[in-house]
Amino acid sequence: MSTSDQTELCYPHLGNSSCRRTVRPHSVSVLLHIILSSISVLTVTLNLMVIITISHFKKLHTPTNFLLLSLAVSDFCVGFLFIFQILLMDGCWYLSAGWCVFYTVFVVVVTSASIGTVVLIAIDRYIAVCDPLHYPTKVTVNRAKICVVLCWVCSGFCHTVRLKDNIEHPGEFNSCIGECVASAHPVSRITGVVLNFIFPVTIILLLYVRVFVVAVSQARAMHSHVAVVTPHGSLKVYRSELKAARVLGVVVVVFLMSIFPFYIVSLLAGPTKVSLSFLVFVICLYLFNSCVNPMIYVFLYPWFRKSLKYILSFQILKSGSSEANIL
Predict the structure, then answer these.
(1) What are the Cα distances from residue 12, in Å, to 1, 5, 86, 95?
(2) Is residue 226 classed exposed, middle or buried when 0-12, 13-18 and 19+ CB atoms within 10 A define those classes?
(3) DSSP SS3 for 177
(4) What span, in angstroms and rounded, lies between the C-alpha atoms of 315 and 299?
(5) How far is it, in rounded angstroms, from Cα 280 to Cα 286?
(6) Which residues pair with 286 in a beta bridge?
(7) Which of 23, 113, 223, 296 has the most beta carbons within 10 angstroms of its beta carbon?
């Protein structure tokens, strides 16, 4: 076996039983590792800031923010899982089969919980904008917490069942040594696409279309000085809810743009029918969304920018800092 052939194998000493890896120029490989590692660190750091902010400051303990907290937790986990994707960038898995199972199952559970949380956010904004008078009674902190817990539990249960064979027989479905794949029945794979993409995306789009229609009609009413029969001060509350809907609408749009290519590949082409480089790209784009979300908060949420100053200046360590009004 020639030296050039050996460099294309994940485990050269195993010969033909080893998987082949994608060979890139050293400079390109180093650059990709630096970029992806930076994204991983940035994702973990920014989402940790969101988690600390919402958890610490009592003024932020609202139903909407608890949903954002759930999204930040899932994004925080994705930041760590990015490390495994970096290991797979060249098509070789150098860890044990058990770690492969952990990665494949956990990444599906976390991303599924993230998608479920985005659906809950869309429902929250729909009620806040379309039925503002009953929002405080329909959407409470306790109900938001229960929905978040159910979202995570259902995600964990469903995908653990779907990938049961992989969990019970680690590495059995690998075609060569150095591969890390999750095998699922075609029906199970289609079901996963429906539950994780088609169904939630349909709900999200329908709800936000309705929110947009209501927002436009309310804006026209306000510009036309039409009297709205609502309690005093409710117009100010409505504007606040509408602003929150716009911010979270940006989160949803970016989220859909990030996951769309991955599920199109999964549904139409199938991961085995595309090049490794393109597959790595769509997966990284899918995971990169977890880094974008907290950036959106930085630019569009004043309270997040203010809380960052508290954290970075260590004022958060002072007694009574949790009572600070950062809104």
Answers:
(1) 9, 8, 21, 16
(2) exposed
(3) strand
(4) 22
(5) 10
(6) none
(7) 113
- Hey, what amino acid is at 266? S
pTM > 0.90: no
* In contact, 241 and 135? CB cutoff 8 Å: yes
Average pLDDT (157-182) is: 81
Higher pLDDT, 259 or 76: 76
3-state secondary structure of 134: coil
**Residues making up the chain, counted from first to last:** 327
Residues 6+ apart with CB under 8 A from 15: 1, 9
Q: Which helix (H) or strand (E) holds 262?
A: helix 234-264
Mean per-residue pLDDT of the chain: 78
Contacts of residue 26, defined as CB under 8 A and 6 or more positions apart, other chains included, come to none
**Average pLDDT of the residues in 53-62:** 87
Cα 46-48-50 angle, rounded to 5 deg: 75
Token pair for residue 121? 């956010």
Q: What is the per-residue pLDDT for 304?
A: 81
What average pLDDT does range 252-281 have in this prediction?
A: 68
Helical H runs in 16-90?
A: 26-56, 63-87
**Side-chain half-sphere exposure of 252, counting CA atoms within 13 A:** 27
Domains of the chain: 31-323 (1.20.1070.10)
The distance of Cα 64 from the centroid of its chain, to the nearest Å, equals 16
207, two tokens: 């709800």
Sign of the Cα torsion 71, 323, 299, 216 reads: positive
Contact 276, 91 (CB under 8 A): yes
d(CA 266, CA 281): 13
In 163-200, which positions are buried (b, 16+ CB within 10 angstroms) versus exposed (e)? beebeeebbeebeebbbbebebeeeebeebbebbbeeb
